[in-house]
């Protein structure tokens, strides 16, 4: 049994704070896949820095039945071309960053192929991000839903856009910071595209 670890949700292009937590608790991190899917969280949305400030990218999901749907069973909707708009958004916001072209070919396939389940899509993106950051980690998952974890730090509802990050974040160069100033806790891709190999040192 894991003790002194943490239980984390699986997010879409998670914010910087997510990775500071993940690094702090690894290798004793368990990913939640049995919870009922909560709406309006980072599980299917990410914030990036656009010319007009913070921009939210949302992965649309198929509306389920009236019953609550487990996170692992939530399916991605392809009723409209959200992948194209997300990829165009990332290109528009980061094409002029120092490292976008360096990582571009790694991310492009995620905006071309269709993945059925949101959890799988997020996990595959997280695996890519960990590889690019050179963070080695074995994935462990919940196999039942537990309301509380006495031996784990429960971060399932802590990391969300409504709460201010509880970790200090030093400013780093952002493409449009002369317009809006430094924006905290954007998606990890903002840090990665701007800082490249220095990302892990920053974290």
Structural account:
It is a single chain. This protein has 203 residues and is of the alpha/beta class. It has one domain (5-202). It is built from seven helices and five strands. The protein has helices spanning 16-25, 82-94, 100-107, 118-133, 177-180, 188-195, 199-202; strands at residues 5-8, 29-31, 45-50, 53-58, 152-154. It has a three-stranded parallel β-sheet with strand order 2-1-5, with no helix packed on it.
Using only C-alpha atoms, the radius of gyration works out to 17 Å
Structural class: alpha/beta
What general outline do the C-alpha atoms trace? globular
Strand-residue proportion: 5-15%
Low-pLDDT runs: none
Count of spatially separate domains? 1
Which percent range fits the helix content?
25-40%
The sequence of SSEs as H and E is EHEEEHHHEHHH
Q: Which strands sit side by side, in order, in the main sheet?
A: 2-1-5
How many H/I helical runs? 7
Calculate the terminal CA-CA distance, rounded to whole Å: 28 Å
Biggest sheet overview: 3 strands, parallel
The averaged pLDDT comes out at: 91
How many runs of DSSP E, i.e. beta strands?
Answer: 5
Pfam families: WbqC (PF08889)
InterPro entries: WbqC
Protein name: WbqC family protein
Organism: Mucilaginibacter aquariorum
